[in-house]
Design goal:
This protein is α+β, with helices and mostly antiparallel strands. 49% of the residues lie in helices and 22% in strands. The strands form two sheets. Strands 1, 2, 3, 4, 5, 6, 7 and 9 form an eight-stranded antiparallel beta sheet that branches. A two-stranded antiparallel ribbon has the order 8-10. The longest helix has 19 residues. The chain is globular, with a radius of gyration of 19 Å.
Length: 247
C-alpha cells in the first residue's frame, strides 16, 4: 500500500481505523475531529494527527478546505517499529507548531506528475520525523473499550447490508443494549443507526455511480428495507436524491 495525499473540500469521514498514520491539515475553515470518542473543533492552519489504529473520523460543520494524508508505516521503514508500538503524544497540532509540517503536506499534495515514489517517501519520512520531534511519542495504553469498538466496526463493515439491530449486535458482543449504545456513541461519535445508515449510503453511492442497477436493486443490496426508506435516508446523507446521484 502506497501513501496517499489529496485535497478535500467539506470532507466527511465516519469513524474508522487503519494501520496507517493519517494527517489532516485544515487549510481554510474548520473541521470537527473525532478521536477515540473525543470531539474537537480544528481551525485553519492546525493539523489533526491520527496515530496508527486510532479510531477517528471527522465532519465539516460549515466549510473546510483540507489536505488529507495517509502514510502506511511500511513506507517509512526507519520509523515503522516506533510508530507501530507507540502513538503521537499530541492529537492536534496548533497552527504555529504545524507550519513546517503543513508545508511538507502541501508539497506532497502537488499534482502527481511533479512527484515520484522516492520523492514522496522522503516527504513522508520528513513530516513524520518532524512530528516526532515536535510532539514526541508515548506508549499506547491498552483499552478494552477501544478494542471492543474496533471489533464492532469490523463486524459492521462486513455485515451492514444485513438486518442489524442495537439489541442483536449488543448481544453478539455480550452487552446489554443500553451499555452497548453508551459505549458506541461515546467512542464513535454518533448513534448505531446513524453509523449503519452511513455505511449503507456510502455503498449505495458507489453502486449508483458505477453499477447501472435500478434503484430498487441498489436499495436491497445495501440493506434498506424499502425504496421509501432508501430515498429518505440517502437524501439526509447526501443532500440530494438517489436518482440525482445516478444521473
Amino acid at each position: 500500500m502506497e501513501a496517499q495525499v489529496w485535497h478535500a473540500v467539506n470532507n466527511q469521514a465516519m469513524a474508522h481505523f487503519h494501520g496507517a498514520v493519517e494527517l489532516i491539515l485544515v487549510e481554510e475553515g474548520t473541521l470537527m475531529a473525532i478521536q477515540e470518542g473525543k470531539s474537537r473543533l480544528v481551525s485553519t492552519g492546525e493539523i489533526i494527527v491520527n496515530s496508527s489504529y486510532m479510531i477517528h473520523g471527522y465532519t465539516t460543520p460549515d466549510y473546510a478546505k483540507t489536505i488529507v494524508a495517509t502514510i502506511p508505516l511500511a513506507t517509512v521503514p526507519s520509523l515503522q517499529n516506533a510508530l507501530s508500538q507507540k502513538k503521537f503524544a499530541a492529537e492536534i497540532l496548533g497552527a504555529e507548531e504545524a507550519a513546517e509540517c503543513a508545508r511538507l503536506l502541501q508539497l506532497a499534495a502537488e499534482p502527481a506528475h511533479e512527484r515520484n515514489p522516492f520523492y514522496m517517501n522522503g516527504l513522508n519520512l520528513a513530516v513524520l520525523a518532524l512530528l516526532i520531534e515536535k510532539v514526541g511519542l508515548k506508549e499506547k495504553v491498552p483499552s478494552a473499550e477501544s478494542d471492543l469498538v474496533r471489533e464492532i466496526l469490523i463486524y459492521l463493515q462486513d455485515h451492514f447490508a444485513e438486518e442489524l439491530t442495537v439489541a442483536g449486535t449488543a448481544a453478539r458482543f455480550g452487552y446489554s443494549a443500553g451499555r452497548f449504545s453508551h459505549i458506541f456513541n461515546a467512542r464513535v461519535g454518533c448513534s448505531f443507526t446513524r453509523y449503519i445508515n452511513g455505511l449503507r449510503c456510502r455503498m449505495a453511492e458507489k453502486l449508483l455511480r458505477e453499477s447501472g442497477l435500478p434503484l430498487t436493486d441498489v436499495a436491497s443490496a445495501c440493506g434498506f428495507s424499502s425504496l421509501r426508506t432508501f430515498h429518505r435516508v440517502y437524501r439526509e446523507y447526501a443532500g440530494h436524491t438517489p436518482r440525482r446521484a445516478k444521473e
